[in-house]
Amino acid sequence: MPGPGPPGADILRPRHVLAEDSLRAFVTALPKAELHVHLEGSIPPELALRLAARHGVRLPGDEAGAQGVREAFRFVDFGRFIRVYLALSRCLQTVDDLRDVVVALAQRLRAQGVVHAEVTFTPMTHAVRGVSEEVIMEGLMQGRELAATIGVSILYVLDIVRSYADQAEPTLGFALRLRQRLAGGVAGLGLAGPEGGDHPLGPMVDVFARARAAGLRSLPHAGEFLGASSVRAAIDRLGADRIGHGVRAIEEPSLIEELARRQIPLEVCPSSNVALGVFPDLARHPLPQLIAAGVAVSLATDDPALFGVDLVDEYLRCASQFGWSVDRLRALAQASLRHASVDEDTRRSWLAAAAAVPDPE
Which of 224, 251, 258, 344 is catalytic? Predict the structure, then answer.
């Protein structure tokens, strides 16, 4: 699919300088898709505390209330991130819990002008704790139905953790059963967790092949903590239709050329990359180079509650850092809609709506 528009001087030279409130209103008004957001990582501190209280779960920093939890969300390394993420996961035990977090996410997304979200969820993390499949499915289904009434279309990406290869097969089974019950509602199969030689892709290859044969998209993470070889493996061995992160592809020019030629979209999460140390700061993030090379990209938040960012913030941070014009921001919003797993009539409607949003004064 096409990227966010042809590269040009607007990456370095904005067409005109706008007040932040005017630009924020413009970005908010643009219909957008959020294509890389983890449900477990979207739970804000206040809701997390309520869920934890329901079940007697201790959260890092909870002795100081919501502000303490918020402070605990500030990461120093990936290990701490995973500990907080798993603590949040333990708060999801009932249909009500899952429904409530999906609805809360949809409400926040709608306030940001998001019309469609592909929400990553790791079902086996909860199943191994004893949460039944019926509870998980019912919570996700109820949440999705209520999100639609709010004005946000939600599809689920069912995620496998690389370090638990034995969970790949049951995750595929869950994804196919959930899709049947939702009459759709499942975008594809995801893959997350630590990249590298300790967690080879071999056990995943057949599962992803069968997922694709059954009509699910291949939506793995790659090229976040490991370099270009991880992105190549996701494409060559998993048949990736879209790649979560993929930013370390910048380390191999021939791979960048291939991504641009084949228009395999990357879900780029700049604030996440900086928070987790993939890049030292936003100024050294390769997003402008990816765009200039013609790679198809969209902006996303990854774990917005954990990184203290929403999708509008992500657009504005990048616009400020990279000197983007309103044309670039509109093109990126439209790219997110082009990369979404939706039917063409819906896509055309959203793209037309994005094109109709007037430039800010």
Answer: 224
